[in-house]
Design brief:
Elements: H1 8-35
InterPro entries: DUF4044
Pfam family, one: DUF4044
Keywords: Membrane, Transmembrane, Transmembrane helix
């Protein structure tokens, strides 16, 4: 696999995608904990 230089747009897109994935997982975990009564 040869490394291709990523454009700035691609880098920003990847970062945004990761942020969205982490935010989604975080909210899923938070709502699961809330359902279990961890946060009252």
């Amino acid at each position: 696999m040869q490394k291709k230089q990523k454009s700035t747009f691609q880098k920003i897109t990847m970062v945004l995608v990761w942020i969205m994935i982490v935010a989604t997982l975080g909210s899923l975990v938070a709502s699961a904990l809330q359902a279990l009564g961890m946060f009252g």
